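Dear colleagues,

For the upcoming journal club I promised to circulate an example of a predicted protein-ligand complex. I picked one with glucose-6-phosphate because it came up in last month's discussion. The inputs are reproduced below in full, followed by the predicted structure.
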Amino acid sequence: MITLTHNKTLTGSSEWEALEGHWQQIQPQHMRELFDSNPDRFEQMSMASCGIMLDYSKNRITSETMDLLFGLARAAGLPDWIGRMFSGEPINTTEGRAVLHTALRNRSNRPVSVAGEDVMPEVNQVLEQMGDFVQQLHSGEWKGYTGKRITDVVNIGIGGSNLGPLMVCEALGHYRIPDIQVHFVSNVDATHLVETTKQLDPETTLFIVASKTFTTQETLTNAHAARRWCLNSLQDDNAIASHFVAVSTNAKAVAEFGIDTNNMFVFWDWVGGRYSLWSAIGLPIAVAVGMECFHELLAGAHAMDVHFRNAELEQNMPVILALLGVWYANFAGAATYAVLPYDQYLRLLPDYLQQADMESNGKRVTRDGAVVDYTTGPVVWGAAGTDGQHAFYQLIHQGTQMIPADFIVPVHSHNELGDQHAKLLANCLAQTEAMMRGKSSEEAESELKASGMESDQIAALLPHKIFPGNNPTNTLLVDKLTPGRLGSLIALYEHRIFVQGIIWNLNSFDQWGVELGKQLANVILPELQGELPIGKHDCSTAGLLKYYLSLRAGKG
Ligand code: G6Q
C-alpha cells in the first residue's frame, strides 16, 4: 500500500506563520475602527482595470496584511507560475497538458507554442469557421432538411460544455439577435430535453452537440434522443447533416455518432472544460449574440490577461482578490465565499463560478501528491441581489459564520427604467455598508427608545436587533455589462482561481472527482436495467436498488 506523505512546506513557512500571527492581531479589530482611523482607506484599497473598479477597503485587513499576503505569493513563486501558464508549459501535470485558455482570446496573435508548435493559426481558423457558420445561420443561408430557415438552436452538453455558454448567453441577453433562439439541455433527466423540445419544430431546429471527449454519458444520451426526435419527424438519415453540428476534440467519436466532421468545430486538449467558453464551446454564444460580440468578449478577456500578466502583484486585481480569499479561508477560518451580482443578467454567474472554482481548487493533495494540512477551495455560492437579501442575507448579517462576499454591480444599466437602477445600487451599497458597520448595542437601543418602546420591552428585544458587522466584502463596479466587460470579469475570476491554486500548491486543472462520477454511474446502470444481477454494494445502495427494481416491476 502506498502511504501519502503530508506537506508542511506551506504552513511551516515564515510567510505563513507571520500571517497566522497577524490574524491574531486583526481578529479583535472592527472594520469601523479601521475606517474611522484612516479616511484614505478607500483610495489606498481600491483600484481599476479593464473598466472594473475594485474596492477592497471593506475587508478585515491593514496595509500590513496585504504586504504579508504579497510576500506569501512571492514565496510561492507566483510571478514565475503566471509566465509558465501563459507560455504553454504543461502545468496540468496529472494529465500532461498545457493550460492555454488565454491563447483562445490572444487578440495580439503573439505566437503561443505547445510542444514547439504555434497554436494561434489553428485558433484563428476555428474562429473563422465559427464566423462562417453563424453568418449562414443568421442570414438563413443554412437551411433545415426541408428547406426552412433555422429558428432554434439547442446546445447539448454538460459541465464545462454547458455552464459557461449558458451563463454568457444569459449575461448578454441585451445583445441577443432576434429571430434565433438558443436553448441548453444538460441534464440526463429526460425532462430537460422533453420540456425543451416541446416548443420546437424539428424542421427549424439545429442541435450543437458539445463535448470535449464525446464520451460523456449524459450528453451522448441526450444527443441520441435528439437525433430520434429529429428523425421521427424528418424520416431520413440524411437530414442529420442539416440539423446536427458538433464541438469536440474527438473527431472519431463525432463521425461514429453520425455527424459529418465537416460540421465539426474542434478544440484542443490544452483547453480545460470549465475554461472552454472561449473556444468553439462558445458557439452557442456566437449564435445568440453574433460573432462580433463574441470577438468583443474575447478581447475583454485578453485585456484582463494582459493586466494579470504585466501588473505588479500590488496592483494586480486577480492577485488581490485571490489573496483576500486565502486570508479568509486559511487564516480567518471562512468555509464559504459568496458571489452576489446586482445585475439580473449575471444571475447565473454564481453557478458558473461554483464549477470554475470548486472543480479547480477542490483538491486535497499538492502537485506532488502530498496531503495538504491547510484548507483549500471554499464552497462558492450566491445569487442575484436583491433577491438574496430577502432570502439568505439574514445568515450573513446575524448568523455565526463569516461569509466573505463579492458584490458586483454595473454603473450603467441596459434597462434604465425610472429610478430602478438607483434603487438597485442603493441596495447593493447599503448591504456592503451594513455588513461592514453592523449595528451596535447603543445604536439599536437608541432606535428602540426613539420608537417609544418601554424599557423592559427594549431589554427583551435588544439582543435581536444587534448586528455585529465586520463581515468582509469586495465591491466590483463595472461601467456597463458589455461583451468586453463580461470577458474581463470572467477572466478576472479565472485568474483569481489560478493564483489561489498556486498558493495552495494544487493542480487546478484536473478533475478526478468528475471522472469518478462518470465511472460509478456506468457500474450501477446495467444493474438497474436488469442486464446484470445486483453486484457488491454496501447494504444502503443494494437496498435502494432492490426497492427501485421492485417498484419498477410493479410490485410496490
Ligand atoms: C470541466 C470538467 C467537466 C466537463 C464535463 C463535460 O472542466 O472536466 O465539467 O466539462 O464533464 O465533459 P465533455 O465536454 O467531455 O462532455
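Two points we might discuss: The pocket of glucose-6-phosphate is lined by residues 158-161, 211-213, 216, 219, 272-274, 359, 511, 514 (CB under 6 Å). The chain has a mean pLDDT of 96.

See you all on Thursday,
B. R.
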